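Appendix B, record 7
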Amino acid sequence: MALFDLAEPIPGAGSEKLAATAAKNKVVLIASLFEKRAPGLYHNTAAIFDGKNDDGKNDSAGALVGIYRKMHIPDDPLYYEKFYFTPGDLGFKAFDTSAGKLGTLICWDQWYPEGARLTALQGASILFYPTAIGWHPAEKAEFGAAQHDAWRTIQRAHAIANGVYVGVVNRVGFETGDIRGNSAPGKGLEFWGGSFFCDPFGRVLAEGSHDREEILLGEVDLHHLEDVRRNWPFLRDRRIDSYAPITSRMIDGK
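Structure tokens (predicted):
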């Protein structure tokens, strides 16, 4: 229960420091925060700061452009996010920044094509996925390679299907904490890193290692994005008149 005390409102002390960092470095910064919305109500939230767009209130702080609250909340071994987080209620969003229009989703959101599509349809040229995903040590030998390949593939697919760039930022390191008291050796999570950046063709332009923190750089070429969408006009050819059943849990007549 004490971990709930780590949450804070947005704006708050943490977001003010991040805004100042964005302004100091003249960058657009996306940061994941444990948001305290009200007593007993918490979100996994990404805040977007524009260091080239002063908020008019503090000369040393960049503007808080907006927030995205994680929509899909998992409940997997050693995650238990449903214990902490309320599902987002702001929908999928794209944000205008000095670096262009971008969207961000969070971790478990990355497995859902609907979130990527709805964000891209709002004009985002790049999707960011701040992430914390890893291997369970007992499963790594048998399933590890396939799990990592699936994770990498689904996000490259978002880039291809929507004609956008995708930037995935995943943590590294080993963690044994468990709210249910199980912290025995080998029972934790090995976060697999592997952050990467890919273009609208799904080509990986930069990729990190599995075991250390790194800074990755990649260039967004809007002319290339336009060219890809002209040749693969998936958004043009969507049959929006036929997709209403997508809002059903299952199409089984029940």
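Remarks on this record: The chain is about 25% helix and 30% strand. Residues 1-69 form one domain.
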